[in-house]
Amino acid sequence: MATTPDFIEFVCDQIDPRWNRRYRKMFGEYMVYVNDKPVLLVCDNTVYAKKLDCIAPFISEDSTGIPYKGAKEHFVLDVEDGENFPKIIEELEKVIKVPVKKKKKGEGK
Fold it and tell me: 20 to 30 A Cα–Cα from 105, which one of 12, 29, 44, 83?
């Protein structure tokens, strides 16, 4: 079951508009970006975040899952948790870096 367009829109609507938020379809599912940083993975209408120590206090220990075959275990987030979800986004935005685009062969010569 793939993530529905309504669900990904709902997830983004739960992120404070002060953040530059967007999503991108990747491999049939979605990555959510905050300030161009990939902070959330949305697969099968479930929201995942990397298991980082900075967000562990906001998530119960049993809230983990594997977003897709071959992936590492991630935290499963409750986007409707109005108290913790904004804190999680803020912490992730602080620690996740903007991806650096790799140069293709032959560029820059």
Answer: 29
pLDDT band at 7 (very low <50, low <70, confident <90, very high): very high
Q: Are 56 and 95 in contact (CB under 8 A)?
A: no
Residue 57 burial class via C-beta count within 10 angstroms: exposed 0-12, middle 13-18, buried 19 and up? exposed
Q: Rounded to the nearest 5°, which phi and psi values hold at 6?
A: -65, -40
Assess contact for 85 and 14: CB atoms under 8 A: yes
Query: How far, in Å, CA of 26 to CA of 2, rounded?
Result: 11
Taking Cα atoms as reference points, which of 39, 14, 43, 45 lies closest to residue 26? 43
